[in-house]
Structure formats: C-alpha cells, structure tokens
Amino acid sequence: MLEVKNLTTHYGIIRALNRVSFSIPQTGIFSFVGANGAGKSTLMRTIMGLVTPTSGEVFFFQQNITELTPPSRVYKGISLCPEGRRIFKSVTVEENLLAGAYLCKDKSIIAGRVGNVYEFFPKLKERRKQRAGTLSGGEQQMLAIGRALMSAPKLLLLDEPSMGLAPNLVEMVFEKVKEIQESQNISVILVEQNAEMALAISNYAYVLEVGTLVLEGTGISLISSDEVRKKYLGV
Ligand code: ATP
Question: What is d(CA 76, CA 78) in angstroms, rounded to the nearest whole number?
C-alpha cells in the first residue's frame, strides 16, 4: 500500500528525517514513536505532501506520489488528522465534517460519510449544530478524526491524537482508532509520544530517533523489551 524509500527532509539546514525507509504492505495500525523532535510530524507531513523532501520517494499503491500536491494525495486515498487538531473553531461540528469531504461533489455520498462518522462518534451527532470551538478537548479530537475520515481514506495519518487529553479520554481515542481501522479495513499510521498506548494497539511499530529509524517490530515485541522501554520509550 505505502512504500517510503530513503526519505530525507530538511527545514533549512535542520535535517528532520534521515534516509527513512519502510513499507506498509497491508491494512492495520502502524505506529511511529519517539521523543520530542524525533521527526514524527515531519514524516506525516512529508507523506501528505505538505513538506517537500530533499531526497527519497513515496509510493502509494505502486504509484510514485512524491511530486503530487496534498489534494491529489487526498484524492488517491490519504488523509491527515494533524497534530493540534486544527479544527475550524468558529463554524459548526457538521460544517467541519463537510470541509473534510471537499473533493467529493456527490451529496448522497457525503451524507453517507457524515452518517458513518456519527456512528463512530455519537457525541458529534448530538453536537452537530454546535460551534466546534466550544467542544471539549476530547470532542475536538473526535471531530478532527471524523473530518479526516470524510475523504474516505485508505490510509489515515494520525498525528498525536492523545495530545493534551486526560488519561480516560486517551484510552477512548485509542479504542476508537482501533474500531475505525477494523471496521473500515484501512491502514492507520499513528504517530505518538504516548508510546505505551500506541504500541499496545499497533500491528507493527517503528522507533524514530533524531530523524532516523532505529528499531522496528510488532507492537507487542517492542513494548515487552525492557531495553527498548528504558532506552527509547521512557516507560
Ligand atoms: P513532537 O513530538 O515534539 O511533535 P516530532 O517528533 O513530531 O516532535 P518534528 O515536529 O517532526 O518532530 O520535528 C523534527 C525536527 O524538525 C525538530 O528538530 C524540529 O525543531 C524541526 N522542525 C519541525 N518543524 C520545523 C519548521 N517548520 N521549521 C524549522 N524546523 C522545524
């Protein structure tokens, strides 16, 4: 589905990603964990086309998409739920969702997708006419994920969905991510500082350290290694 080859990304002279290569052959949850500044968000933004890599390539279903614009990537089936949620606070919940379907012109398809999001997140349905900025932090995160689902992605990129949430809400968000992945049979790339929780729901995971992939394995194998926990995960 996704193949990333030798991806290097710079911000000016700062190298944020260094020859990162990996492939996601099938559906499931794939996590990238690592400390602050490890390059996790940069990886998501490069896959989405929001940042241009210095070198390397990104393939999606065997097609080289390295030069494609972000909307073209959305059209092909990639969707990003960004760090910090970035919902449109001054408009309603439902208007936020509709914004996520901006490439689709078929009203019945859009209505079906809205209904689908409300099935995952009934709270959003209750609040559909409410201004998004007045939602709680957890509800705003649900909305951000819902909006990303509105383009019916085959690959959903989730950047730090647990950020700033109370522990019980973090658990709820991770459970929802698993439920969404399984019911839609899509691939999810999850980027998280909350390594323990992310690894627990991941089929496969990678550890990023200062822009370089240093470790990989099943979520369970990484989380159960004392050395990995101490050295890389800080748990
Ligand atoms: P966090 O968990 O804190 O969000 P991260 O693993 O997502 O961190 P990135 O945000 O990808 O890491 O940052 C990787 C490196 O690139 C860091 O050194 C960061 O300071 C730098 N960086 C990120 N965005 C920019 C930018 N717009 N301009 C300059 N440097 C940047």
Answer: 6
152: left (phi over 0), alpha (psi -120 to 50) or beta: left
158 neighbors 189 (Cβ within 8 angstroms): yes
Q: What are the pLDDT digits (tens) for 86-109? A: 889 899 999 999 999 988 888 999
Q: CA separation (Å) from 111 to 98, 100, 121?
A: 9, 12, 15
Atom 31, ligand 1: residue with shortest CA distance? 11
Using only C-alpha atoms, the chain has a radius of gyration, in whole angstroms, of 17
Q: What is the mean pLDDT of residues 11-29?
A: 94
Q: What predicted TM-score, i.e. pTM, was given to this entire model? A: 0.93
| Separation between Cα atoms, residue 14 and residue 230, nearest integer Å | 27
Reported confidence tier of residue 2, pLDDT bands at 50, 70, 90: very high
Quick one: tokens of 4? Answer: 């990333």
How far, in Å, is the centroid of ligand 1 from the Cα of 103? 29
Asked if residue 44 has its Cβ within 6 Å of ligand 1, the reply is no
Q: Whose CA is nearest to atom 1 of ligand 1?
A: 36
**Residue 11 CA to ligand 1 centre (angstroms):** 9
- Rounded Cα distance between 223 and 184, Å, is 26
